[in-house]
Design goal:
Length: 156
Amino acid sequence: MIRKKKKQPRDNGRGGTVISIIGPGVEVKGDLVSPGSIRVEGEVEGTVYAAKGVVVGQHGGISGDISTQDAVIAGRVDGSLHAASRVEVHASARITGEVHSRSVQVEEGAQLNGQVRMDETLTLEEHPGLGLGEAKAVESGEEERAMGLETVAAGA
């Protein structure tokens, strides 16, 4: 008798990948907190905290402060952006507010109106509601593909 191996469910707990998506046409009023990553293709009015990463798609927008490890912005952000590791600002991005990160990459054509501060010692503080340890950088590859960063980078 041949038995198929049961497919293990994806671990969405502390050690797994958690990706929350705010789709096109969706409007959220209030704070968002995630132990993983958040992708915004709709509109968010409130504070956004994601332990791993925040992606704002070309047609997405956030009116409020963002705290995360890595941020990729192709849409609109009105508020402070704190990314402990890196920030990518695509040509279609419109940011009004302070940007704090270890590394900032800005494409030609992007609008960045505010103060930019780069600090090698910047860390992401733990959000009290998560009960997690220190946030770790987004691993290159798997999570970025799952969040659709290639699509954002290609300008789709």
